[in-house]
Amino acid sequence: MKVNLQGIFHGCKTALPYMSKQSYGRIVNIASIAGKEGNAGMLAYSSSKAAVIGLTKTIGKEYATSGITCNALAPAVVKTKMVEMVPEEQVKYMTDKIPMKRCGTVDEIAAMAVFMCSAEASFTTGFCFDASGGRAVY
């Protein structure tokens, strides 16, 4: 909870006054598909990521007329060095829930974050973008 939620809360709280002075800013909070769907055996993680989505929606609404956007990115499992150390059967369990049947890549997640900060996404705030290979149901 301290990193997943409080870290994002304090980061936004610190950045928003500077962004407000400039009448411009882009915030991308990293959530998780677990925050939207919940993951059995991961109560604290799923709850903290759901709270990140709620925080993002609130900031998005509160700052909607200020030139600042605040959105969340909710990836499913991503192929990282940490995931490479997880037993193959556990990774398969996670990817079996993903219609594309694979992990996302760091580059795919980074590309989505770049888009979220772009002028093309300037009409979107308080939204949770999925990078879930089709796993998300809403």
> What's the overall geometry?
globular
| Strand arrangement in the largest pleated sheet | 1-2-5
Sheet-strand content, in percent, reads 15-25%
User: What's the Cα radius of gyration?
Assistant: 16 Å
Low-confidence stretches: none
Order of helices and strands: HEHHEEHHEHE
Count of helical stretches? 6
**What is the number of strand segments?**
5
Helix content: 40-55%
How far is the first residue's CA from the last residue's CA? Answer: 24 Å
Query: What structural class do the secondary elements suggest?
Result: alpha/beta
Average pLDDT works out at 95
For the biggest sheet, the summary is: 3 strands, parallel
Structure description:
The radius of gyration is 16 Å and the shape is globular. It has helices spanning 2-22, 33-37, 43-62, 81-84, 88-95, 106-117; strands at residues 25-30, 68-75, 78-79, 104-105, 128-131. It is α/β, with parallel strands linked by helices and 138 residues long. It contains six helices and five strands, in the order H-E-H-H-E-E-H-H-E-H-E.
Would you spell out the secondary-structure blueprint of this structure?
Blueprint: H1 2-22, E1 25-30, H2 33-37, H3 43-62, E2 68-75, E3 78-79, H4 81-84, H5 88-95, E4 104-105, H6 106-117, E5 128-131
Parallel strand pairs: 1-2, 2-5, 3-4
Helix pairs in contact: 1-3
Produce a short descriptive summary.
The protein is an alpha/beta fold and 138 residues long. Helix content is 51%, strand content 16%.
